[in-house]
């Protein structure tokens, strides 16, 4: 990547933010609640200390998350003076067509163990369940944790922990959430919107995927393929597909669930979800085989092959990772 990336702790990252202005904040492609919540909280915080800050208008933004971006997206004619990325592990995950922007980023804020170490400076903590936890600590240093920033921070943390159900949730995660809730935010509305509300189109998609999913290796591996035709029949939008990768992981006996979304050009966007069980595998390690990454229980990658072919490739990767893990832990 050229020059060595400067590694910063939370206090140093907070100070670095005070030196930036005319800030453009990048979220990752196909934004989720963590990247959007982090960007919104950071943008509001920077404005509160007198900075000009906006969020990059990601074409992949889903309707469910747009309310949290209201008034924060970059206007026409805005010329950034500096750049910050939140919850982006690799240049490949920058918005489509903006992958090269990774090298111009002044500060990378992230929590992925698979972070590719890019930009000019970075503050990365893989111990954080969500990037929102890291942003919370940095905003504490800036004195910018208040009711305005607390709501998007809660969105970020709740999203990446599955509303505090996933194994990445720690005591510190709950402590941070408690402090945010104490600021009198409407956390129940966030939880209902993110975890309890489904459109009819989403339900149709779930029915299709449930019926067509295939199971392998004694039912421990499952593959569901979402084709363009299925999405058309369901009348589904990108919002309806949000986090649908977790659907077949809930099937009893499944240790590794693969959801493949056919892309307009016929290639495959792959999401891998694994469970906290013996003989399970790391989703990040499986996706790393194809240049992707992520977390222990959630990862993603892109494969330049049709979904059927991509399914075979990912299944083989799961088997190889599992065999390697068994050999490693047997010694």
Protein model, in words:
37% of the residues lie in helices and 16% in strands. The chain is of the alpha/beta class and 331 residues long. It folds into two domains: 6-195, inorganic pyrophosphatase (n-terminal core); 200-330, Diaminopimelate Epimerase, Chain A, domain 1 (Roll). The strands form two sheets. Strands 1-6-5-4-2-3 form a six-stranded parallel sheet, with helices on one face. A six-stranded mixed sheet has the order 7-8-9-10-12-11. Helix 2 (33-48) runs parallel beside helix 3 and helix 2 (33-48) packs antiparallel against helix 4 (147-160). It is globular, with a radius of gyration of 20 Å. The relative contact order is 0.11. The model has no long low-confidence stretch (mean pLDDT 94).
DSSP strand tally: 12
CATH topology of the largest domain: inorganic pyrophosphatase (n-terminal core)
Number of helices: 10
Give the mean pLDDT. 94
Rg result: 20 Å
CATH class annotation of the largest domain:
Alpha Beta
Shape: globular
Strand content: 15-25%
Question: Ranges with pLDDT <50 over ≥5 residues?
Answer: none
Task: Return the domain count.
Answer: 2
Strand order of the largest sheet: 1-6-5-4-2-3
Give the name of the CATH architecture of the largest domain. Alpha-Beta Complex
**Helix-strand string:** EHEHEEEEHHHHHEEHEEHEEH
Structural class: alpha/beta
Overall helicity: 25-40%
Strand and helix map with partners:
Blueprint (H helix, E strand, L loop, with lengths): L5 E2 L2 H9 L4 E4 L6 H16 L4 E3 L26 E5 L20 E4 L10 E4 L6 H12 L4 H14 L10 H11 L5 H10 L3 H13 L1 E3 L4 E6 L1 H7 L21 E7 L5 E7 L8 H6 L4 E2 L3 E6 L3 H24 L1
Parallel strand pairs: 1-6, 2-3, 2-4, 4-5, 5-6, 8-9
Antiparallel strand pairs: 7-8, 9-10, 10-12, 11-12
Helix pairs in contact: 1-3, 2-3, 2-4, 3-4, 4-5, 4-6
